[in-house]
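User: quick one
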Amino acid sequence: MAERVFITGMGMITAIGDDVAGNLRSLRSQQSGLGFTSHLDTIYKTILPVAEVKYTTQQLSEMAGVAGIDGYTRTTLLGLIAMREALAQAGITDVQQEPTGFINASTVGGMCDTENVYFDIVDPEKTGDFLKFIDTLDCADCTQRIADTVGITEHIATISTACSSSANALMYGARLIRAGLTRRVICGGTEALTRFTLNGFNSLKNIDKRPCRPFDQQRNGLNLGEGAAYMVLESESLVRENNSKVIAELSGYANTNEAFHPTSPSPEGDGAFAAMRDALAMSGRTIADVQYVNVHGTATLSNDVSEGKALQRLFGTTVPPFSSTKPFTGHTLAAAGAIEAIYSVLAIQNELVFPNLNFTEGMEELYITPETQLKEGYPVHHVISNSFGFGGNNASLMISKYEG
Amino acid sequence: MAAISPQHTFEGDLSVQPMVISSGNMLSCVEPDYKAFIPGNSLRRMSRILKIGLTTALRCLQDSGIETPGAIVTGTGKGSLQDTEKFIKEILDYKETALNPTPFIQSTYNAVNGLIALQQKCTQYNNTFVHRGFSFENALLDSMLLLHEGKENVLAGAFEEITAEHFYIKSRVGQWKSEDISNDTLYQHFSPGTISGEGAAFFVLGPEATANTYAELAGLKMLYKPSQEKLAASLQTFLQSHEEIDMVLTGRNADINYDRYYQVVDQQLSGIPQLPFKHLCGEYDTAGAFALWLGAQLLKTQQLPLQWFPMQHQTPAKLRNILIYNNFFGEQHVFMLLKGI
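Assistant: Done. Structure below.
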């Protein structure tokens, strides 16, 4: 019998909070992080809203405890801040006391910094300080910087499956534990805003000029965001041995593919349906046990139809309260799965269902509508958290209250 | 399995293929005719590494006789460099307006996986690892976990390209030799840097041997930035549970900066024949996939294509157990053990 996988630490930074507690405060007070960028050099500065972490890269380097040291990109710094909180919350002071793996997720690595110096890097006439960014061009750079800074020397990996990347990182970590290959692994993702991704999604006509409106008839695309989030996952035996404080259980997960279109999901949500169904089945629960679904809910035309159809197919007429928290954080791409996994834990811990901001009008294709009010004192035992992405990559996580 | 590489690895009998020799320190793939694998209208839109990756995957599935695998797991250090470079330039040239989204879509690291899934209608597990010299190896580990969890088969692979622009970028941090050499003379040029390469290799992995099986992947170990002592100790542990090694496929690449790690293996396994492969494929994040392809090929055919290994003085008496050791610029170190069936 494979070991159960428990969450023993969490850390995060997003546009709505510098840590987990700060995020919870903003979710409760329904404070969105969307606004206009002050750090990104783009012609869309005052046109396309984004959910930006309000600190400069310099300030982030101070918060991460590495001020004055070269080579940390914004992606790495966001990740490092979240990593330090996750370690602290799990009570880990020496990461090497127990062999600890690190599974990170990233969609464009250090692009946030490299895109500003790229044309200097490729120009033989130019030389200078920017050469230190050459190593940050790929996705592994942030992972290794974070690992090296906190002293992780065991199994490391970086996953990139677009918007489902960090959900897959959590899944891979959990599977390493269940296979007995490690007893502790830290999983999640980090993402900084870049001109590259902003223009990428904008060229696909996927970005709304207004704050995004998931599951609304008038929705017109997503808003990008930045942030990072990590969870410390431990095996049941390690938890027992160390008497670790368990925050929640990662009780199920599934990864499926749409095999439909490079950037669009299937209209009936086949992949989303299969991912949720399989994650639920793995946890040994039924649809009646799920009190909340933190949907992917990007507010693109196609995602919300597909995901909504999948919810209706899985839950029929008893769809539990669901909401997208993207109007709070923006779509943080590689970090989104882990950020929303933490929100799912917060829903369980605090008996909350977060509202889906900016919703006014139900979609004509669906008979369900998202939760629009903050539900308090609402017992939540099991949450499904969805992350779907380009390439048809779907991932669903089932997060459950720890009941011994 | 299947491979597209700077050598004639895609089809035909290896023993009659000459070594492809080139200078300029940058080896490029011998590309097949893609039309046999990809419909023309899709082909026109696809960038180079997407074609290379998808075609290798499809050829691999053909070779295995499996149309729709139970999962698709890949590794790539850099994804589609050509698309990434193109989109960065177009953002500048067109001042962020009226951009064509295709290079952006194709620059996403999981684009090749999505295409394979789409073309073969594979709706199951799909994952992409992007971690330098651990990209392919994590894909292998993930695949082994999937088989352990009960999957009947997994398509695992890796793909990597080098562009002139990226070659230049990495030359600025000293990854390549400053002297211009010919790949067949790589090991005579022991100096800082190596030669760059690229390629794709895919494998269908299953839990049990069949009549078509090339080899058994009997062990896999990744080590992140180990000391030489830790590398030596890990090799000892890795080999303890296995029989004698007949040959080492070594990632040795004539780079004086990281040769000390290969010397550790020399010391630990002195007397065992070593076969280098980087003169054939060059150095890149997922060169380990080329080594696995080559090792499995050697075990299946029980033949060294001698024209590819003019430096080989010591041919192993028997070929049953092959150890692969590779490291990527001294950071990610990998042992793989391959056994003949």
